[in-house]
Design goal:
The chain is built from four helices and three strands. By secondary structure, it is an alpha+beta fold. The chain has a single domain, classed as Multidrug-efflux Transporter Regulator, Chain: A, Domain 2, CATH 1.10.1660.10. It has a three-stranded antiparallel beta sheet with strand order 1-3-2. The longest helix is centred in the N-terminal third of the chain and has 16 residues. The radius of gyration is 15 Å and the shape is globular.
């Protein structure tokens, strides 16, 4: 198993983690905002939300949450 295999495996695992779907609570905690604020951001299309299940619960892709965090940080 060479270095290329290890690097490929790292990339696959990173991609899988970044594409993981988060609940509204998980995403709100990651952003440091309330669930209500995150719902508002999603309604205003500031962050992409995916509706799942018969109840239409929101899920957020971790990649999108991190991109939102990066583009809206005060630093």
């Amino acid at each position: 198993m060479g270095s290329d295999y290890t690097e490929d495996l790292k990339n696959v695992l990173l991609d899988k983690e970044l594409n993981r779907m988060l609940t509204i609570t998980e995403a709100a905690e990651l952003l440091g905002v309330s669930c209500s604020s995150l719902r508002r951001y999603a309604n205003e299309r500031k962050i992409k939300a995916y509706r799942v299940g018969s109840g239409g619960h929101r899920r957020f892709r971790k990649r999108d949450v991190l991109e939102y965090l990066e583009s809206n940080s005060a630093y």
